[in-house]
Design a protein that fits this description.
572 residues; mainly alpha; two-stranded antiparallel ribbon; 15 helices; 52% helix; globular; transmembrane helix; membrane; transmembrane
Length: 572
């Protein structure tokens, strides 16, 4: 009872013992704020008193705030801890002040719990469901959404500790894929019509090396969204690439050649794509970490990444190449409509993908956006030397520029609308990754074009029979595309800096630190695949003529063969 409270004299503690302490987890996982209560000269610490000593019996319906404190007991000290706001938004009303997740403190990084002295005196607004851009996502043991939050903060976090250089990773994403496709540049390899034993060994060894590039994304991309290892051993992901390369060459190349005694094997890329699916399942069955499928959140993350791989394979690995074969046979206005069809297919694919990801897995946005943009831009760069008129090129360039300018205008419109902070965060992430992919894709293919054209163009179906004028037209269009995208990117960085305070190049570098392995895997696979379907020994004749299967066929270059019935089949 209140009348039974005994007097208490506080010990003479030093000032340092009366300070408020904030507990921060050593592992950079945020923990609820704790403090040592200030000793009172007239009573014990408030938090050390039992409720029954102060109020007696208190009914569950009675509010604790309505219970008067006994005489001599000081008023409770209110401890106000304000979440640190990013330097991006300090003093500028930024739309990118990322709210802290309230329901699961273990998901937030320590960067979101640090408070500056000026902020400690400000009260915390209770976070609501609508305020948190990540609240609509499923629960997870460790949120990948913190990775995007880390990009938008100047301080370190559990996903970005400052030990890796953003500039070096940005440079790696830009240049490393070029070294992965060197086998397509090497001159002196056997011609497509050579079928001696030595030549066949070289053919299959070359295809094995090329399939190394085409298999890269399968072990590395599914693990990008997981917070647990995808494989049981650290070397599982590295051993999967040579396993897949050897498997698809054997099932899709050597066995069909031995059975039908035909080379090149018709539609080798399609056969290998069908062969790689069971090979992936077999490898995952024996080497995948069981925890991936045991927990619901990990299982969902795994299937999201698998869905991205399936979407890329179907849309850009099947639909686009078939459309490209038709595009090469058209001219003028019909070709312009075909160019518009590519843009429409991409728009529908991205619209459906973003709608699904926004409901179930927003953390898949970076991988989805980057993969879609890079695939589209790389394939369009391949078509540039087959463009028949300037307005066909204009269809491609206007679509890309208008899409990015739309993001810029939306950011400026949302600059003073704080209620649209979630939309602004999504726009910044999407626009940066989209513009980055649209810059580097035509640049990388242009560099590959020079190497292939001047060192080993005869096996390449895109360059074997092309005239110098058409080749330089493609180079000019691709360079013009790169210049236009660079100008839009510079304008975009200025707008993002003004609206959010975010330095775009640094943000891209941090994104490459966090997602760099998956980005590289996508680039190497897509660039290698598109070059392989142009490679003559691959037999990927999308016109479905397969003239080399006819008697008396003579190889001219690329996938073009003449026959006694059609001696002018390769005339331009």
């Amino acid at each position: 009872m209140a009348s039974e409270i005994q007097p208490f004299t506080a010990p003479d503690d030093g000032p340092e013992d009366q300070a408020v302490h904030h507990s921060i987890n050593e592992g950079d996982i945020a923990t609820p704020a704790s403090f040592s209560p200030v000793a009172s000269p007239s009573g014990p610490p408030i938090t050390s008193r039992r409720l029954s000593e102060i109020t007696g019996s208190l009914s569950s319906a009675e509010s604790l705030d309505l219970v008067p404190l006994p005489s001599g007991v000081p008023e409770p000290i209110e401890i106000c801890i304000q979440r640190s706001s990013s330097k991006l938004s300090g003093g500028s009303g930024s739309l990118l002040a990322v709210p802290r997740k309230a329901s699961d403190p273990s998901r937030s990084s320590a960067a979101s719990t640090l408070a500056t002295p000026d902020q400690e005196s400000q009260p915390i607004p209770n976070p609501t469901f609508a305020d948190d851009a990540r609240s609509i996502q499923r629960p997870r043991s460790s949120s990948i959404a913190d990775r995007i939050e880390a990009v938008m903060r100047e301080s370190h976090s559990r996903f970005y500790d400052g030990t890796k250089s953003p500039e070096k990773w940005l440079l790696a994403v830009l240049l490393a894929p070029l070294f992965a496709v060197i086998p397509f540049w090497i001159p002196g390899l056997p011609d497509a019509d050579e079928t001696s034993t030595t030549a066949m060994v070289w053919h299959f060894v070359t295809l094995f090396v090329m399939d190394f590039a085409g298999s890269t994304m399968y072990p590395f991309v599914p693990g990008a969204l997981l917070t647990v290892p995808l494989f049981r051993t650290p070397w599982g992901q590295f051993l999967m690439v040579p396993y897949l390369s050897a498997g698809i060459v054997t099932l899709g190349g050597i066995i069909p050649y031995l059975i039908f005694d035909v080379f090149p094997v018709p539609m080798l890329a399609v056969i290998q794509a069908a062969a790689i699916i069971p090979l992936v399942f077999v490898y995952l069955y024996f080497f995948m970490n069981p925890a991936v499928l045991q927990e619901r959140s990990h299982r969902a993350d795994f299937f999201v990444s698998v869905g991205i791989l399936v979407g890329v394979t179907v849309v850009y690995g099947v639909i686009y190449p078939l459309g490209g074969a038709l595009f090469n046979q058209l001219e003028g206005i019909p070709q312009a409509f075909m160019a518009l069809a590519f843009c429409v297919v991409r728009g529908i694919y991205e619209k459906v993908g973003t709608r699904l990801l926004s409901k179930r897995a927003q953390d898949g946005y970076p991988l989805f956006i980057f993969s879609s943009c890079f695939c589209h831009e790389t394939f369009i760069a391949i078509l540039m030397n087959r463009v028949s008129a300037w307005y066909v090129f204009a269809v491609f360039i206007v679509y890309d520029l208008s899409e990015n300018l739309y993001h810029v205008l939306e950011l400026r419109r949302l600059q003073y609308k704080t209620e649209c902070s979630e939309t602004a965060r999504q726009l910044v992430t999407v626009s940066l990754l989209m513009e980055f992919a649209e810059m580097i894709a035509p640049l990388q293919y242009t560099i590959c074009s020079f190497a292939i054209y001047y060192f080993n163009k005869r096996p390449n179906d895109n360059f074997a029979l092309v005239e110098d004028k058409a080749f330089w037209q493609g180079i000019f269009f691709n360079c013009l595309d790169v210049v236009g995208e660079v100008c839009v990117f510079m304008f975009l960085t200025r707008v993002i800096k003004k609206v959010t305070g975010l330095r775009s190049v640094k943000a891209l570098g941090r994104l490459c630190v966090i997602y760099g392995v998956a980005f590289l895997a996508f680039q190497i696979t897509i660039l290698g695949f598109f070059l392989q379907i142009q490679y003559a020994p691959g037999g990927n004749d999308l016109t479905f003529r397969f003239n080399w299967l006819k008697d008396g066929a003579q190889w001219v270059g690329g996938l073009c063969w003449t026959t006694p019935e059609d001696p002018t089949a390769c005339d331009l």
